[in-house]
C-alpha cells in the first residue's frame, strides 16, 4: 500500500488521471446464445409522485406511463434512501450493507469486488452489456463498470456532476467531452448500442442523472414549467420551493421524452416483442413536492424516501395493465430478471426474491417478508402491511399510507417482533463506516489502461479546502502554503511506468508554481508555466 502526495503552492487540483502505459486488450466472451433483451432505465432522485401515472397533474409523462399501462406496475416497491446503496442492490441482489457501501463519496460508494453483478451473469450467457449514465459504485478498476461485467461504459462514475451540457465524461475510462444535454446524450448512446447489437441479446443499463441537481434542463422543457401553476403541492406547502419543483418536473418530462425515443427505436427495429423494459428511480424525491402525501423524501427511511415507481413491459409476454400489490425491492431486481429470462445461477446468493411469478399471475399466493431500509444510522422495516420506522413507531400502511398514526401501543406484539427483526438484521449485516473502511484506492489494474484519482477521493492537509462540503464533483482550493499537500491512499496493482495527466487551474500571477507527485520513494516534479484551458 502506498500514499500518493501532491505538494505545491498555487495549483488547484481538479482531477488526476493515471495511465498504465502497457496496452491491454480485453477479450470478450465468445459464448453466444439466444435470449431476450433487457433495458433497465433508472431515474436519479425522481419521487414516486413525479409521474402522471400516479396522479400528478403538474406534469405529463405518457411514455413512462405506457410502460406501466402496457405491462405491469408494482404499487409497493422500495429502494434505499440514497443513490449508491440502491444501485449496489439492483446490480447484485444483495443488501448494500453486505457490499461495503456506506457513503455516497470518497470511496464509501464502492461495491465490493468478487460479488457477481447482473451484467457479469448476462455477459457469461452471451449478452452484450453496456451502462450509460451515473455509475456511483466505484471509479477505479476493479470497481469500475468495465470491470463489473459491462462491455461499454459512457457517463460518469461519481455520484454528482456539476454541468449537464456537454460536460467532461468518460468512455471506457478515457476522458471525453459529452454532446449536448447529458440525459439526451446518454440516451443517444443507448440507442446507438441497441442498433449496433440488435441481432445479439443485449443488456442496457441506463442510470440517468436527472432530476438530480444541478437543476439544469433544456429551454424546450423549462419553458413548459417556468410560469406554470403547481396545482398539486407538498402537504406542507410552506416547505416547498416552487422553482425547484418546476425544474425537477421539467427534467422528468425530458426523461419521458427520452424513454419515448427508446420505445420508438425498439419498435422500428422490431425488438419490442423480444425486449424487457424496466423503469424505476433510485430513491425518493430530492425536494419537498407532491408525492402522494407520503412522509419523507430522499435520505429518509420513511415511505416517501424509499418508495419508487417500478414498471416492467415485455410485449406479448406480460399482459397489459397488471398491478402487483405485493411488496418488492431493489434486492429483487437481479433474481427477477434471471427469472424472467429463465436463467439459472445455482451458486448465486441473493437477499432478494424472484418476482417473476407475480408479474405473470399477480394474485399468486406469497409469504409475508421484510424489506429493510437503512441509511445514516437509521433503519426502517416494511412488511406487506406494516412499517416500523427508525424510531420504532409502527404504522398500518394499508389504512394509513401517510404514516399519520403510531399504532405501536395497540399492536405491541407486532412492534416488538419487528424491533427484534431489526436488531437481528443489523447484527447479521453490520454496516461499515468511514472509520472501519480500510480499503485503499486501486491504481494500475493490469487489465485497464486508465485509472482516475479525482479530487473527491483525495485528503487535503493544512489550509487546503474543498469547493463544497459534499465531496462529489468538487475541486481543491486555497492551496497557498508549500507545506500543505493532498494525498490518496492507494494500492498499486501492477508495477510499471505510468503517464500522469493533471487537470488544474492556476490563479493569475501564479505562473511558475512547482508541483510534485510522490509515491513511496519515487518523486516527479514539474513547473506549471501558465494556466492552460483543455480543448479536448
UniProtKB/TrEMBL annotation:
One Pfam short name: Sulfatase
SUPFAM superfamilies reported in the protein's UniProt record: Alkaline phosphatase-like
Domain (Sulfatase N-terminal): residue spans on this chain: 36-343
Keyword Transmembrane helix: no
Membrane spanning residue stretches: none
Signal peptide stretch: 1-21
Entry keyword set: Calcium, Hydrolase, Metal-binding, Signal
Domain of life assignment: Bacteria
Family, per entry: Belongs to the sulfatase family.
Name this polypeptide is given: Arylsulfatase
